[in-house]
Amino acid sequence: MYDFIGDYLKKTVVSPGSATIINAISTGFGSAFGIDLNIKASVCENKKDKIISKSDIGADTKLMDMCADAILKHYNVDCPLTIETETNLPMGSGLSSSSALSNAVCKGVSSYIADEFDFKPLDDLEVLNLAIDTSLDAKVTITGAYDDASASFFGGVVVTDNYNRKILLKEKFNESDILIFLVDKDSLTIDVDVKKTSLISSMVDLAFKQALDKNYFNALNLNGILYSSVLGYDSNIALEALSAGALASGLSGTGSAFTAIVDDQSIDQVKDAWSQFEGKIIQTHVNNQGTILL
Fold it and tell me: Is this model's pTM higher than 0.85 or not?
């Protein structure tokens, strides 16, 4: 489907965030699943002879510029572009907003350039790797967030070797409701004390083995307790969710979001349990679709 603004082609991409099963910072191995909160990026040409990134949602416009520039350099073309974003995905909260942003912009710009100049489109892994390379260059990630970026790009659940950029396991995740508790605290991944997280690496390895065996709920629970302790978050947020009947609950990324996987019987009980804490609750679903061109 083609959309036009005046004489210009417009491309729009929607990329979901993801929630953590295993945080890869301490070991380089991770796991995540897509959630149905997303970033939408629209790309079109402009007459200003430069890249113009616009966002009124707190998205990183520098990262948007760098993603567009990376795609243009890959194709060796010069094309002035306007990129605009909108979202219902909280920024800087451990729900892969940087990965979703990079995926959306890289896919949108690459699709636009391929159509506009009649180039061969980039395949999924080419787009994904360019998005990750740019996130590393922009210093919004420590490991490259291959787990987060892959879950955002493909949807469903992934288990990954982040440093070697290998997807060890990829499949659809249970179509469950997800509750997210946003603690009143911003947390940027790049500010994390990596040496401190190495103290829990052997225990995170145990949780990762659970993820490899597809015991995702056990892996998420254990990972959440471990990283909450080392990053200074209140693990009682997850424990109260579990006590109220959540299937799994834990810290996502480096915070500040906690997630709970719930069923129809536990959803209201978990909300009630979380009402004792200071923060905001968001209800969403698992996303098995991934990053798509509208």
Answer: yes
